[in-house]
Amino acid sequence: MDSVHPDYVCLLKKISLWSEIGSSCLISQRFVDFISTIGFYHSKPDHSLFIYCKGNDMAYIFLYIDDIILTASSYDLRKSIMSLLASKFAMKDLDPFSYFLGILVTRHIGGLFLFQRKYAEEITDRVGMTFSKPAPTPTDTKVKLSVSSGSPYEDPTHYRRLAGAL
After folding, report:
1. Lowest mean pLDDT segment, chosen from 20-24, 40-44, 108-112, 150-154
2. Sheet of 99-100: strands edge to edge?
3. Closest Cα to residue 87, out of 15, 166, 7, 159?
4. C-beta pairs of 13-22 under 8 Å, 24+ apart in sequence
């Protein structure tokens, strides 16, 4: 804070991947425009996924807020893409990832294994169900529900968070 001008606002000049975004749900148009110039296109089912395919060369970029996962069919292609991205955006290579968005990643000679066990355990711990007994179905199948049965929850926040996590 500036003691002479306490009501002034500072403007940050660093250009970053997310400098133009007002919401974390939106992908920077500048990033999308740039990677499309180098041959990537949006995946139809998931707009966070970008695909590059030229001959035998394939690469995928998954973008989540300010994290990028880049995988490519060859080391040289991956390095080339990273170099192009680094020329336009502030970024650093964190090397192979092992945990991302609640998914544990392990490598083997044929590819990757993705596990969500840790994420599921975090959810059950968060809602106090760590020591609950497993059931073949998550609800009682014999109960008949209606609008007038039971009493409404005073604060459904706990259940909304659980549903959101799932």
Report:
1. 20-24
2. 99-100, 103-108, 111-115
3. 15
4. 14/90, 15/89, 15/90, 16/66, 16/89, 16/90, 17/66, 17/89, 17/90, 17/91, 18/65, 18/66
Q: Would you say 101 and 28 are in contact if contact means Cβ atoms under 8 Å apart? A: no
**Dihedral sign for Cα atoms in the order 71, 73, 79, 83:** negative
**Cα-based distances in Å from 163 to 34, 44, 88:** 36, 25, 38
CA atoms within a 13 Å half-sphere pointing along the CA-CB vector of 41: 5
Q: For residue 121, what are its two tokens?
A: 């355990």
Under 8 Å between Cβ of 124 and 133: no
Three-state DSSP at 164 gives helix
Residue 165 predicted with pLDDT over 90: no
Whose CA is closest to 72, among 58, 93, 62? 58
| Bridge partners (DSSP) listed for residue 58 | 53
Quick count: other Cβ atoms within 10 Å of Cβ 81?
21
Residue 9 pLDDT level (bands cut at 50, 70, 90)? low
